[in-house]
Amino acid sequence: MSDTHDVSDALLAIHSSALAGMGSSPRHFTRWAALAADEDHPDADLTEETFRSRLVAGDEALLALWSRYLNAWDFARSASWSADTAPRTRARREAAYERLQFGPDLCKAFDEAIRVSEEPGATVITREFTPWYTQERASAHAFYWHAYERKLRAKGWSGAAIAGLDEASHAVVERLTDPEQAAARQAKGLVVGYVQSGKTANFTGVTAKAIDAGYRLVIVLGGTLNMLRAQTQRRLDMELIGQENILRGGNLDDVDSLVGIDYVGDDTDWPDFVSHEGRPSARGAFDIERLTTRDNDYKSLAQGIRALEFEKREPTRPLHDPANLHHTAARIMVVKKNKSVLTKLVKDLKQIHGLLGEIPALIIDDESDQASVNTSNPKKWEQGRTERTAINSLISQLLTLLPRAQYVGYTATPFANVFVDPSDGEDIFPTDFLISLPRPMGYMGVQDFHDLTSPLPPEERTYANSQEKAHVRSIYEATKGGDHLQEAMDAFVLSGALKLYRAEHGVPEGPFRHHTMLVHQSVKTDDHADLALRINSMWHEAGYASTTGHARLGALWSADFAPVCEARAPELPSPASYEDLRPYVSRARQLIGSGGKPVIVVNGNTDRYFDQLDLDFDRTPHVWKILVGGTKLSRGFTVEGLTVTYYRRTTQQADTLMQMGRWFGFRPGYRDLVRLYIGREETYGREKTADLYEAFEAVCRDEELFREQLARYADLVDGKPQLTPAQVPPLVSQHLPWLKPAARNKMFNAELVEVRSPGKPIEPAAYPLDPRATARNTERWSTILAALSGSGTTVCRLLPDATSRQARTFRAASAVVPHAELLGVLGGLEWENRNLFVPHLTYLSQLDGRLAKVEDWLILAPHLTERHRIPATILGHGPFSVFRRKRQAGKTAFGRISGLEHRAYAQQLIDHAGASVSVGTTPELSPQRGAVLLYPVIDATTDAEVRSAVSAGSVGAANVTIAFTLIPPEAAIDSKRQLIRFRAKDSNLPEAAIIDSH
């Protein structure tokens, strides 16, 4: 056994040395392995068969090593060794195998052990920058990154997930200024994640790489309450800073040496804190000194001015000189976004004077759209003077005091940061980069609660194919009776019992440590107290130990949880009947009711309030409680184990609404148990009602559209960015009209001129509200309506795809019209906001041969099925199927116009243009033919409203909107493939992001 271990260790050492020697490119592995073995292991067996057998046997160390390198090559954005392959593709992996000169059996073993991850990477919108953080430089100084990487692997992260984090954090660090650079320069950026999606992991990775590279002061702005700050401090301490830096020479066997040291003795996870196997400074790296601890926010530099006296190996050279930089300790502090705390920090830094200009510093602003943004009214500023809100002013002072400081904001709701005044050099506008992180694997987000892309009609949706049916329980208290609060509480008890059942039947119990229910119904603290009292009374009257209570839970199990578990998690253990679950219900009831307090109100504004709550998810063994609260439960605060949410609070702020989505997150082992009880007709204002589920869906669609656009324009053209952060605001404002730029007395200098969409749908939605304009638009479509009217019916056959394995068909009227005729119609249309369509029209107008050549367009006017069809003639043409669509709440625009199956069919035609693919009786598309879906639309909520608009089989021109989606051919672009164009409104200031509006 020892001999086998020695052989394995030798093989691991040889492979480690060979891979390290290759640098950033795969090379002939056998040769490099032979070189690595030559001196220390000349007799080692380097055959592919031995190598393959190790992989097949599951040699964890060897797999971890190769996972790191294979994933790094898979993920590399630009690989000079395989310039013609895209990252995260099968082709890239095969190119690596070819360079390594691996045989087919070894390649197959790798494919099974370390699969190619084809998940999308981060989207980067950036200014041009000088590359400095090369793979070679990153590898030369990587002590803390490797420690963090090992910690993530120990936590169960996959190789692909770690590689994704490696790539995304590298993209941030390479856009910071080189810490060794002689000239001081500040870079500012914004990283956009998803609500509760693991942004902390990214900024921990960025911190690790930044200090490895030479940044020596890291200031993390971590929330507005000490509870949130302490969460972040503990995470950094546990996963990056590590035991040895916390102990600072203290001996675990000497109690006296541990006085004042946190975690030791009162945190059961202390053994899981990362260990560097000795003081980093004694291992050829550098130590980290903490200027804050778990329990102590920044107070003052009592030890203080000394705490920032960096030792220099070469006293005559500046700190940022490489001779000094890589031999001095880094300082990290995690501070609240609190006026008094930040004021102390600024005051202390002012006393240090000259040294500050030498310190490469990094400021990480968690939840950067909260408190950090300047919300003062520019109209009230004194002439020539910028007035700032307190936290914004203090961040600005930090940036001024630290000329080598880099600022990186993190948020899930980026729009406030995007609309910061870019001309204000002391503010936090992300002038250098904006990075949108991908949706992480295992994350439960909006796509898991809404059927955004389902082509199925509501009556055909089941627990298996509908996210809404599986997880969402609607509350229609006013019209359908009952507030479902008792049912939600029963679901909480039942889901807790199921977690206990699963833990006892082999499912890892770690994720079940905490089990919570969130009730969010009002912003008012008095309402919280009343609601908590009501829930507490309901709990004690629920009879969970009685026959009646068990009967109620049994019914909920049979009607809801049993079928959802079977459809969504058949691989997890599940009781055969409620009787098998009943013993676990008793234990769940005891855990929730422990201490006589099943309910905790979370709505205080002070640290003292939260200290008294006993709601520390890190130090409390089990938090099984119902939490009642408002805003304090929606910002940065992670509700661990959240399984049931009861949400009925209205708001007209989109970013506020998104932050309320605490039900988004990671739910390993219990995704199928998650339930969202949400109000569908909640009152607000004067006699208005809001469907909160639809509101979430609308906001999420807007956010996803924003992300999609960033991804689309992120590719470089001729080596230069198509889109810079300063050009994002006008792009955003087109699609989110409810957002207003923060600088009210300015206008953006970047004007969107043209959007090119080869092979992609264009679907304008801001149709006019004025019936007279609507009538004029309808009349402009008259010739095309006439062509469709005389065409008969076409059968459209949708090929099997990811949404359905079955071929589907629908019928449509069809006609082919010349490009010039369609352009004539489109150019004459009126819009509620014409500027929204003009950039698309500019593109389409050039498809006459100037940019590319489109000969004609296939027009399809889909028919609804006989059961749902409401036919009507329009201007004497037709009849056509009239469609029901509704303008979005608070907007002039409709939601999605085209039906999902219809759009998928049109996209299928474009994708297979010129190929002989059977798609029904539709005319085949040539590479110079585009597709248009045409919809006569009535602005209505119900079919009854649509029928009332149709009179004697006809609908008036003023009552029907002719809406459309068009998809240009994939060839409708020039060789440069630039997709977006801007121009400066003031040509004398081409680099200015904004200009005065006067």
Give me the secondary-structure category: alpha/beta
Helix content: 25-40%
Give the overall shape, derived from the CA principal axes.
Answer: globular
| Individual helix count | 32
- Neighbour order of strands in the largest sheet: 1-8-2-7-6-3-5-4
Uncertain segments of ≥5 residues (pLDDT<50)?
Answer: 1-5, 733-747, 994-998
Largest sheet: 8 strands, mixed
Range of strand content: 15-25%
Give the C-alpha Rg: 31 Å
Q: Multimeric state of these chains?
A: single chain
Average pLDDT: 85
The total of beta strands comes to 32
How far apart lie the N and C ends? 82 Å
Protein model, in words:
α9 crosses α10. With 998 residues, the protein is α/β, with parallel strands linked by helices. Helices cover 36% and strands 16% of the residues. The strands form 9 sheets. An 8-stranded mixed β-sheet has the order 1-8-2-7-6-3-5-4, sandwiched between helices. It contains 32 helices and 32 strands.
Record the SSE blueprint.
Elements: H1 2-22, H2 29-40, H3 48-57, H4 60-75, H5 90-100, H6 104-113, E1 123-126, H7 135-140, H8 143-154, H9 159-173, E2 188-192, H10 199-213, E3 217-222, H11 226-241, H12 243-247, E4 288-290, H13 322-325, E5 330-335, H14 339-350, E6 361-366, H15 390-401, E7 405-411, H16 415-418, E8 433-436, E9 443-444, H17 467-471, E10 472-475, H18 477-480, H19 485-504, E11 515-520, H20 525-541, H21 547-568, H22 578-592, E12 599-602, H23 607-611, E13 624-629, E14 642-647, H24 654-659, E15 665-666, E16 675-679, E17 682-684, E18 688-690, H25 692-712, E19 716-717, E20 720-721, H26 728-735, E21 746-748, E22 750-755, H27 771-780, H28 782-789, E23 794-798, E24 808-818, H29 819-828, H30 838-845, E25 856-862, E26 871-874, E27 877-881, E28 883-885, H31 900-911, E29 929-939, H32 943-949, E30 961-967, E31 980-984, E32 994-996
Parallel strand pairs: 2-7, 2-8, 3-5, 3-6, 4-5, 6-7, 10-16, 11-13, 11-14, 12-13, 14-16, 25-29, 28-29
Antiparallel strand pairs: 1-8, 9-15, 17-18, 19-20, 21-32, 22-31, 23-24, 24-25, 26-27, 29-30
